[in-house]
Amino acid sequence: MISTTARDALKAAGFRATKPRIAVYELLSSTHTPLSADDIHKRIGRSGIDRVTVYRTVEAFEQAKLLKSVDLKRGAVLYEVKDANDHHHLVCRQCGIVEDFAGCDIDKIAQNALKRSKSFTSVSDHSLELFGTCTSCTR
Ligand SMILES: [Zn+2]
Ligand SMILES: [Zn+2]
Q1: pTM for this one?
Q2: Rounded distance, CA 124 to CA 119, Å?
Q3: How much distance in Å is there from the Cα of 2 to the middle of ligand 2?
Q4: Which ligand is nearest to the CA of 93?
Q5: Cα 26 to middle of ligand 1, angstroms
Q6: Residue 103 region, left (φ>0) first, then alpha (ψ -120 to 50), else beta?
Q7: What angle do CA 126, 131, 134 make, to 5 degrees?
């Protein structure tokens, strides 16, 4: 079933709502952890969508700000749907589970950084991921 929200999101970003684009966008909107292009291909490849198409699609989506790329130190860039609210990730070093967290206080950090900087006048973007140990791995 094709949800109208995926179609609407794609159209709003200037994309034609093709089957591969809808599949990529819907997968990422229904998953709660960031996925690499390979992860995405593994999950939707059965419907005849090839790897190159997945790579091109996530890159185009990122440029259009539909997706955000995340680096969780796994050797591959991961992608997630960009939402209006800023959030980051807590990652378990042992088992790899990922949890979102919000409230990074970026305005304050950016202000401090700019105050101390000799060569910067503005900050437009930021990334922050926290690595640690989850409850089940602590037991
Ligand atoms: Zn864990
Ligand atoms: Zn933030």
Answers
A1: 0.83
A2: 15
A3: 32
A4: 1
A5: 27
A6: left
A7: 135
